[in-house]
Amino acid sequence: MIDTIVVVVFSVFILLVGISFSRTGRNLKSFFAGGEAVPWFIGGLSLFMSFFSAGTFVAWGAIAYQHGWVAVTIQWTMCIGALVTGLYLAPKWKATGNLTAAEFIKMRLGTRVQKSYIYIFTIVSVFIKGSVLYSVAKLVSASLGYPLIPVTVILGILMISYTAVGGLWAVMVTDILQFVVLTAAVLIILPLVFHETGGVQQFINKAPDHFFDLVNGEYSWGFIFAFALYHIFYIGGNWTFVQRYTSVDSPKSASKVAYLFAGLYIISPIIWMLPPMAYQVIHPGLSGLDAENAYIMVCKQVLPAGLLGLMLTGMYFSTSASANTALNVVSAVFTNDIYKGSINPQASDKKLMFVARASSWFFGIFMILIAIGVPYIGGIVEFTLSVGAITGGPLLLPPIWALFSKRLSGKATIYITILSLAINLLFKMVIPLINHYKLSRANEMLLGVLLPLIALAVYEWVAAKKKRVSPDYLQYREYKQNKKKEAAVIDEEEARLVKAQNVFGLKMIAFSLAFMAVLMLVLAGITSKGGTLVATIALFVLAGSLIPWRAAKKAGTR
After folding, report:
1. In angstroms, how far is CA 136 from the centroid of its own chain?
2. What does the DSSP 8-state code read for residue 473?
3. Which keywords does UniProt give here (predicted)?
4. What does the alpha-carbon distance between residue 286 and residue 294 come to, in Å, rounded to a whole number?
């Protein structure tokens, strides 16, 4: 009962935070990009939490339980992807001057390519984030004993409400808060888990053979290599993450966003994956879809009442952050690039804000329907990895290539994308039905990332031999020059409002952290074990709330 109360109290608080940002969304730039003046460390933490979700606990937790350390190795590929992004891709995205990746695609590769990508990206994003919603619904359902489908619907509606009301700053405040919640929760869990196993040495001694190998089972070095390539494309080109690079003030800040993400993904996979690994020793024998419950089962076993609710809330809102970000971007693309770009170019800011919020609800409801269907298509691990293998390279790599290439044309982009998607789908869905031949996990991922890469490289080589420059690139270069002139004109009133929005956002982060610290202190007083540890962490969180508060004061005096 205490856990349910904690979940409800925290959820209501987060929704109120979202409502508090409803008046800051004056136009598309403020609603979807934070006025392009978001502090880089806020953007970096938000990017980390947007990538992070309950899928981390359910999908990678299942792999950690079954195969051990390889779950950490898989997530380290995300660090590699972020480093490459920080070096080369994030500053390039910021330098385009575009609000969304879709806007860049339109200007660089043409309206036809943009529309094709919008339709495919929207469908894929909703499918992926539907699976993410399934993950957190399953966690809440399994831990609190409520039916899966009603939990999915209720959590989905709460998620959509938050995004539709608050926009990007509301999403980012949630991101920061959940980063602190989950870090605090896992620091509480780890000593309790190792106590349950009889100590760290006992855990190591009792673990299965090869449990601490860098690769294990179907997750071979070939898969790790392909997954690292995939994450360069995904972190550097996913429209959701591109928004984090374009919402800061400069290319240098965009790089810092990616570097912070990379640094966090060196340490966090070890911390996150140790509890389900330890549960293999505590309770061996889970398999199939049951292994997806490993994380929440170990939490239920070691956490006292109240702290389980805090962990669940952290898992839910970290997932909410991930799905909220996707909804925010899909809604931005629809509003900015379809409605404003093609349907109603003269729409007022008020009309565009209405469309932005209405489209968040439309895509969010579709996300809920996908989440309900995940158990019927093989579970979260199969779904997540297969969707990534099929769509990641064909959709994400061509726009990244266009950031650097003078020769890639819109027509070639369409052909390469469609051909790559078709071949990936052929090997994933058609050939196994015809002759029962199925690619290994590694080969499936390698095909997905190498096929479009080779196709683009061959096209670039042929165009270079012919010394051909794409007409699309020449038009884009002219557009970019005009864009720079427009950007040089400073709207002082807009700058003042953006500054006020960012100061308010920092204050809300400080207030939210203080609220969470007080809640943890209350739980420390009533918990049956770990009370001193919980109270200590709560005091650190309370002290940490002073950092954004001082940053807000400093920003307000400039």
Report:
1. 14
2. H
3. Cell membrane, Glycoprotein, Ion transport, Membrane, Sodium, Sodium transport, Transmembrane, Transmembrane helix, Transport
4. 8
Residues 6 or more apart whose CB falls under 8 angstroms from that of 299 comprise 143, 189, 275, 308, 311, 312
The C-alpha atoms of residue 314 and residue 11 are separated, in whole angstroms, by 10
Report DSSP state, residue 374: G
Q: What torsion, rounded to 10 degrees, do the Cα atoms 264, 244, 164, 347 define?
A: 180
In this structure, how many other beta carbons lie within 10 angstroms of the beta carbon of residue 12? Answer: 11
The residue to which tokens 């954004």 are assigned: 548
User: Six-digit token pair at 103?
Assistant: 């806007």
Rounded Cα gap, residues 118 and 109, in angstroms? 13
Which whole number is the average pLDDT over 384-396? 82
Going by pLDDT thresholds of 50, 70 and 90, the confidence category of residue 272 is confident
User: Token pair for residue 433?
Assistant: 């039905």
Residue in this structure with the two tokens 């003042």, named with its chain if needed: 496
Structure tokens at 110: 């043409």
Q: Rounded distance, CA 61 to CA 45, Å? A: 22
- Where b means 16+ CB within 10 Å and e means fewer, 382-395 reads ebbbbbbbbbbbbb
What residues contact 22, with CB distance under 8 A and at least 6 apart? Answer: 165, 166
Q: Are 558 and 541 in contact (CB under 8 A)?
A: no
Q: What per-residue confidence (pLDDT) applies to 380?
A: 63
Residues sharing a CB contact under 8 Å with residue 482, sequence separation 6 or more, in sequence order = none
Rg (CA), the chain: 23
* Other beta carbons less than 10 A from residue 269's beta carbon: 23
Provide mean pLDDT across the span 308-322. Answer: 69
Could you report the per-residue pLDDT of 475-533, keeping only the tens digit for each? 888 888 776 655 545 456 556 666 676 677 778 888 888 888 888 888 888 776 667 88
Q: In angstroms, how far is the first alpha carbon of the chain from the final one?
A: 48
pLDDT value, residue 498: 61
| SS3 sequence of 82-106 | HHHHHHHHHHHHHHHCCCCHHHHHH
Return d(Cα 1, Cα 265) in angstroms, integer: 34
Give how far Cα 245 sits from Cα of 474, 480, 494, Å: 25, 18, 20
In one letter, which amino acid is 88? Y
Where are the alpha helices (H) located in 466-491, listed in sequence order? 471-487
pTM of this prediction? 0.77
Say which residue the tokens 């990508």 belong to.
117
Q: Compute the half-sphere exposure of residue 509: CA atoms within 13 Å on the CB side of its CA.
A: 34
Distances (CA, A) of 467 to 60, 389, 406: 47, 33, 10
